[in-house]
Amino acid sequence: MSPEQARGEPDLGPRADVYALGAILYELLTGRPPYTQRNGLEALDALLRGPPPPPSAVAPRPIPEELEAICLRAMAREPQDRFEDALALSDTVGEWLEGVRSRERALEIVSRADGTWSRAARLREQAVAARALFVALSEGLTPVDPVEKKRPAWEAEDEATRLESLARRLELRRAELLNTALHQVPDLDEAHARLADLFAAEHQAAEARRDEAATAIAETHLRRHDRGAWRAYLSGEGAVSLITDPPGAR
User: Fold this and answer.
1) What is the spatial distance between Cα 81 and Cα 152, in angstroms, rounded to a whole number?
2) CA atoms 223, 228, 230, 235: torsion sign
3) CA distances (Å), 36 to each of 25, 26, 33, 40, in order?
4) Angle formed by the axes of helices 147-184 and 86-138, to 10°?
5) CB–CB of 203/219 below 8 Å?
6) Can you give the pLDDT at residue 249?
7) Higher local confidence (pLDDT), 157 or 42
8) Measuring CA to CA, which residue among 157, 121, 119 is closest to residue 136?
9) How far apart are CA 43 and CA 51, in angstroms?
10) Structure pTM?
11) Helix (H) or strand (E) holding 152
12) Residues 219-242 as b or e (16 or more Cβ within 10 Å = b)
């Protein structure tokens, strides 16, 4: 029962029911009732003296902070500090549950993106091997060599191109999946981290081939998704160590 009910106050309203529902939620979170005194009068006295310990202080395992906050608000000492009625409490818990479900769906999408990335990486390795075979088969070939002699090298090159194309499609699909996960949960760190890694790799590749436009685009995306892992890289700062002979030379 709520503190005002325990005090015997008249005209109890819906907020007293909210307190009772909060107490049920408390026990669901902790595995124990808010007040554990075996004697009913002792429990009543404890209720009148003050609130029970926060759920996180007595729960056998970590509990979601948002759900604890809902519980504590429902069990506020003063009725005006609680939810207006049971429906308002129900809606708030429902919104929290929907957020949990959205996060679970988003993480499942991130997992699918990881699988896509693994397949793309294997294709890239196969493409590198095919390119190496093409180079090996091309050694010694001349423009006037017969087609039959050139065909193995051409086939190796075609296979490398095919594998690279498949890998690129999977990499693009990975980016699409990660963005889909962010549509589900915009602040999902797991998706942002993977997209930051992706654009960091694109930034490095664009710099290596001196493509200023692609470098700028990749940097813009990297800054949007980075959550700190690439901060030092984005700062553009470095260090140089000088070793002189003789030591201390100026």
Assistant:
1) 79
2) positive
3) 15, 12, 6, 10
4) 170
5) yes
6) 87
7) 157
8) 157
9) 11
10) 0.69
11) helix 147-184
12) bebbeebbeeebeeeeeeeeeeee
Q: In Å, how far are 27, 45, 162, 175 from 169, measured between CA atoms?
A: 50, 68, 11, 10
**Which H/E stretch holds residue 119?**
helix 86-138
Chain center to CA of 175: 14
- Comparing 65-69, 119-123, 235-239, which segment has the lowest mean pLDDT? 235-239
Residue found by looking up tokens 């087609």 in the block: 147
Q: Mean pLDDT across the chain, nearest whole number?
A: 94
With beta carbons less than 8 A apart as the criterion, state whether 25 and 88 touch: no
Q: Other C-beta atoms within 10 Å of 73: how many?
A: 15
Q: Residue holding tokens 């065909």?
A: 151
pLDDT tens digits along 124-154: 999 999 999 999 999 999 999 999 999 999 9
Backbone phi, psi, residue 209, to 5°: -95, 10
Give the three-state DSSP class for 234.
helix
d(CA 1, CA 211): 70
∠ CA 29-60-37 to the nearest 5 degrees?
Answer: 75
Check if the beta carbon of residue 132 is closer than 8 Å to that of residue 212: no
- Mean pLDDT on 5-34: 94
